[in-house]
Amino acid sequence: MGSRCTSCGALHLPPRALCPACYGGEMEWQEMSGQGKLVAFTAVYIAPTAMIEAGYGRDNPYCAGIVELEEGPAISAQILGVDPTKPEEIEIGMPLRVAFVRRGAGDEQHTFLAFEAG
Ligand SMILES: [Zn+2]
Question: What is the whole-number distance in angstroms between the Cα of residue 111 and the centre of ligand 1?
């Protein structure tokens, strides 16, 4: 979900309470299609703690990227379905679809934003 400013129409993702374009404070929710394209990426070998706990790291890198949604806004997320050890095979502009990844268990379970190829 993104937020759209009811004053100027600017769309924000992640959603914001205040509009950085016109400083308006009236927002409405907008559901995004979940379709986008890859505009930048990197292979992460030195992972932050949460990703190390998820099994990633020097021996199991992951791909992080910037995804431009078809509605316009761009957001950073893990990119699934690509091989981060072969970055030459990952294409800028490739179509991506949103995926929600759950990690942890019980009260420690959280949902993370990701995108996957296809
Ligand atoms: Zn605005």
Answer: 29
